[in-house]
Write a structure and sequence with these properties.
about 190 residues; mainly alpha; Arc Repressor Mutant, subunit A; 3 domains; 5 helices; DUF6115
Length: about 190
């Protein structure tokens, strides 16, 4: 019986050692899995940071494209303003010729020159209340910005015709290369249309 008890103790001791070795192997595997999981988490964080940088880049690009579209609209508005000014100038020339014709008729009909000059001055004051020969409807209210952009547009086109490159024009005018490219692209589109 003692012999059987000793054998049972030895078997129990071997079982305990086996369990201890198994638990150590299990702990080693847990540590390995934990390190692998930490590496995967680091990789995921790096990918997340990369995605954040890429999304910021995309947002910047979208804002750039939107501002280009806005400048296209501004150039179109400037072109409309120039068209309005040209029409107003034609109307002014027509009215001036009508005033001259009226003055000629009044002189031929015997009305004194002073009276005709007074009528002409009153008509001029009505047509040009701002003075300096600028009709009231031609006086720019808020369109000075579009007029400046039109000047910039013409300057870019002129410099380009002189042979300057996009970066040289951008440096000379103090604007971005993208804006210069856009203006030249619009000019090419308008000449091909």
């Amino acid at each position: 019986m003692i012999f059987i008890g000793i054998v049972l103790i030895i078997v129990a001791f071997v079982g305990i050692l086996y369990d201890k070795k198994s638990s150590m192997d299990y702990m080693g595997r847990v540590d390995t899995k934990k390190r692998e999981l930490e590496e995967v988490i680091k990789d995921a964080e790096m990918m997340l940071q990369e995605m954040n940088r890429f999304s910021e880049y995309l947002l910047d690009q979208m804002e750039t494209k939107y501002s280009r579209l806005s400048s296209v609209n501004s150039i179109e508005k400037a072109d409309e303003h120039v068209y309005d000014i040209e029409n107003a100038e034609k109307e002014r020339l027509y009215l001036r010729s009508e005033m001259n014709r009226t003055a000629d008729k009044t002189q031929k009909s015997g009305i004194s020159y002073e009276a005709s000059s007074k009528v002409e001055a009153e008509t001029r004051d009505e047509l040009y209340p701002m003075g300096k020969g600028v009709p009231a409807k031609e006086v720019p209210a808020k369109n000075t910005d579009s007029a400046v952009k039109n000047v910039k547009y013409e300057t870019v086109v002129t410099l380009s015709k002189e042979g300057l490159g996009i970066s040289d024009i951008a440096k000379k005018l103090g604007v971005g290369k993208g804006e210069i490219e856009l203006i030249l692209e619009l000019k090419n589109q308008s000449t091909h249309s």
